[in-house]
């Protein structure tokens, strides 16, 4: 389920699945990086005007992470409803830095960051496989969404 409310924050609500958890019943830490990516994927149609599938398959742009980090403050468990909050905190030439928060009923549980780079996936292009400038239309839409550390 995708919901978007406050300006500059994209929110994705998820239910923790059985397969997200380790034998102790706690969400295994790499799963949060997938949750961050799911939030980023759903941010595209919610705020940028087109789907992430169009970005990759039609526009032939990739968006690999070149950096990611997370801090884990409280555990999440099977059956929990959690909400991933995504903000854009920096726009570079080709890179976009995201900040994430994961919230549960008891408040904030995880914080994270990632830097993703717009990459040319068009095999016919001499720039194939390299970082490329964020397209102007995309930059404008991200700026309209809101960029910065404060909400
Ligand atoms: C991504 C690369 C091809 C970029 O290499 P290149 O040499 O072309 O670019 P630069 O080195 O000049 O950097 C461009 C840009 O990124 C910033 N940057 C680079 N490293 C870091 C870092 N560690 N921390 C912060 N920022 C960094 C740099 O400052 C520049 O910023 P500007 O804004 O000034 O332009 C190459 O780096 C590469 O191939 N890396 C490996 C990527 C990888 O394997 N990541 C693992 C996860 S894969 C992934 O997450 C992924 C997700 C998707 O959704 C995809 C979708 C579609 C296709 C692929 C996907 C994908 O792989």
What does it look like?
With 151 residues, this protein is an alpha+beta fold. The chain has a single domain (2-145), classed as Hotdog Thioesterase (Thiol Ester Dehydrase, Chain A). The chain has 3 helices and 8 strands. The protein has a 6-stranded antiparallel beta sheet with strand order 1-2-5-6-7-4, covered by helices on one side. Strands 3-8 form a two-stranded antiparallel sheet. Strand 6 and strand 7 form a beta hairpin. It is globular. The two termini are 22 Å apart. The mean pLDDT is 94. The structure holds ligand LTTK3YTO. Ligand LTTK3YTO binds next to strand 4 and strand 7.
What labels would you give this structure?
151 residues, alpha+beta, Thiol Ester Dehydrase, Chain A, 3 helices, 8 strands, 35% strand, binds ligand LTTK3YTO, EC 3.1.2.28
Structural topology:
Elements: E1 2-4, E2 10-15, H1 30-48, H2 52-58, E3 61-62, E4 65-72, E5 81-91, E6 95-104, E7 107-117, E8 119-120, H3 136-145
Antiparallel strand pairs: 1-2, 2-5, 3-8, 4-7, 5-6, 6-7
The structure holds ligand LTTK3YTO.
Residues 56, 62-67, 92-95, 115, 117, 119, 130-131 line the site of ligand LTTK3YTO.
InterPro entries: 4-hydroxybenzoyl-CoA_TE, HotDog_dom_sf
GO molecular function, one term: 1,4-dihydroxy-2-naphthoyl-CoA thioesterase activity
Keywords: Hydrolase
């Amino acid at each position: 389920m995708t919901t978007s409310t406050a300006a500059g924050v994209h929110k994705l609500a998820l239910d923790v699945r059985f397969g997200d958890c380790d034998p102790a019943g706690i969400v295994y830490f790499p799963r949060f990086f997938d949750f961050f990516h799911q939030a980023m994927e759903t941010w595209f149609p919610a705020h940028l005007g087109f789907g992430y599938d169009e970005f990759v398959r039609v526009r032939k742009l990739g968006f690999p992470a070149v950096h990611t980090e997370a801090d884990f403050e409280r555990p999440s468990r099977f059956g929990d409803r959690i909400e991933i909050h995504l903000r854009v905190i920096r726009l570079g030439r080709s890179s976009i830095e995201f900040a994430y928060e994961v919230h549960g009923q008891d408040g904030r549980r995880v914080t994270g960051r990632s830097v993703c780079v717009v990459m040319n996936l068009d095999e016919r292009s001499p720039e194939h496989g390299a970082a490329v400038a964020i397209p102007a239309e995309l930059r404008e839409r991200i700026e309209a969404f809101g960029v910065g550390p404060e909400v």
